[in-house]
Structure prediction request, 738 residues.
Amino acid sequence: MKKSILNQAINLTLLSTILGWQVGQPAWAQNNQEDEALALDDVKVTARKTEESLQEVPVAVSTFSREELQEAQAESLDSLNGAVPNMNLVLGRGSSSSANVYIRGIGQPDALQTFDPGVGIYIDGVYLSRIQGALMNLYDVERIEVLRGPQGTLYGKNTIGGAINVVTRQATGETTGTIQVLAGDYGKTSLNAYYAGAVSNSTNFSISTLYGLDNGFVTDPITQQHYNDRDNTSFRVKFNSANNDRFNWQLTMDYTNQENALSLGNPEATLVAVDLAGGVVPLYVPSGEEFDFQSSSSFRNDENQELRHWGISFIIDYDINDVWQMRSITAHRDLQSDSFIDIDASTLELGDVFVGVDQNQFSQELQMLFNNGNGLSGVIGAYYMQEDVPSYQEAYADDFLLYDGFPLDFLRTIADDLETTSYALFTQANWQINDRWGMSAGIRYSKDEKKYFRTTSTLSDAGAFLNGTFSFNDKDSWDSVTPMISVDYQINDNHMLYTSVSKGFKSGGFNGRANGASDVSSFKPETVWTYEFGGKSTFLNNRLRANYAVFSSDYEDFQARVAEDISSFPVINAAELSIQGAEIELAWLISTNTYFNSAIGYMDAEYDQFFDFRRPDEDRSDDIPPFSPEWTFNLGFHHNIPISTGGNLRLSTQASYIDDMYLSVDNQEALTQEGYWVYNAHATYEFANPAWALTIGGKNLGDEVYKVEAQEFSSVGNIQTAYYGAPRTWYAAITYNF
Prediction:
């Protein structure tokens, strides 16, 4: 099977290359002089807190410009799934706004507030501490940088798996703007607009807005109710100023409001009730047929998923002298979410919940950046974050418990509050030793202090067996010192090699599902050591770019939520893992009008040991870590056709492949996804008047049915629910630029 998949990928690559040479031939023939000067753009990144060429940064980083995001039809952050080697980025389980992100086998899919993200997501330098609300729309993004591997010696908040930096558009003082209207199937409509200009000689202003609506691609076959829809309103306002050559500031305010229907999955295993008089009673048996995007819920009163997410940040840059620059990033963010989630995805009331969250965070980051102009640069930084996450939850399970065949009512209410204070000191220095050799070294000290309160009450006809109220308070702190060091060697102007060693750290926490004294516990932090060797190369007079890396990670104290019985869901530091892999990203400017790109990732993730107290005599080291596909591919072909009447036609096709993977820690066979391909394409006609453009496109053109996430509560009704990617969709958009 693997050989067939690899052959398919190679054939697609060769086919795209052959097509590229054929359609690109006229451009070659028309202007040989132009072809000789043809070269890829020099991509600039700020991965090391200063603007550098992508080809000179000794870091595994993928970049996407605004134009590349448009070519990839990237509407929201999960549109990047498959576009970055060894990255899995999908919609979170049962939530319309959560982001499940794994990079190189490390992540955190659980949106419960007692877990920290495994991959950091930043907007204009501000860290988002929850995966809920992180699945942002990309309507006004200038570029995205995805850094693979532990990050901390350059960033305010340490992240163990990697970082996704989202940089929004910045006004330059020039009056410019864009308006786009889009319509598609499943009732999809959207309107987004961007305007930028000057307020005064020294102050610029921009505003961007988005309104998007679709009816959803999952339908109740009886009521015709639509699920998995999107009803999103967002805006962002930015002011930036350059009062003089040494001082400038940026003020950003953003707001998002979503009122979405339920995100429904499909029950993949037999759902059961427990009869307290003895025995297990089957309630629902899946057909075993391919999911047809029809599903039903026990929620019948327009219960939905509402989100209000806003933030404000203020950034100051001050050049103290020719060597030192001070940067301050002050930010506040507020997230309010009221979501109903039908965990069992059926008309049964087995795992239905309401989760209301009111999260707020304040962060202050101070950086002292230096560059002596003679090969030595770096940053010294301090970071502080205060976060408070109170929540209220209800769990409904009237169909789960029986007594001698009679149903027993069940309601559990939960009120909890998590307070987190994070401190950090970090520094990194980059030394260009000579024309060939460079070296970077950094170190970070991180400390997280957490206080957690939880009270839970259970009301059931089952009586003393379940009834009662339980509460607890707990607090703890964790700290870590995480170093990194890298050495790079510039072979010549076209080739650079580097090697690095870095340590990552993710804080410990508390069991946010404890319903009794036996479940009260804290879990330890995760740590990882990553060893990497890579290179950056250009060929064919800078028309072909190849960036590559091999890595090995020793990952310890993996935090796993498991299920023990009907009311016990402990979190354990279950495992130690070894993760090895390789990555390559290619960009080839075949001709003036033809461009090809590809990203290939290989990963071998395995448990060195897996301790599970539920099965003390069982060796689980042969299990497969979740969300760790062995192969990921992305292939893109883009061609430009000038029209004799003055217009221009741009054609773009992309294919991505995600290999077999498990969607649950316990490796439930029902919650697996075999390898699958997704094909996207679009055509954009730019009119003779360059202000106007018309785009027609489609996603998942092969109409592939594939799982992206899962809920696994097998101890409660044998719940094993899978969530699916969208089926084939079409759209058309008209864009006006001024």
About this structure: The chain is about 5% helix and 60% strand.
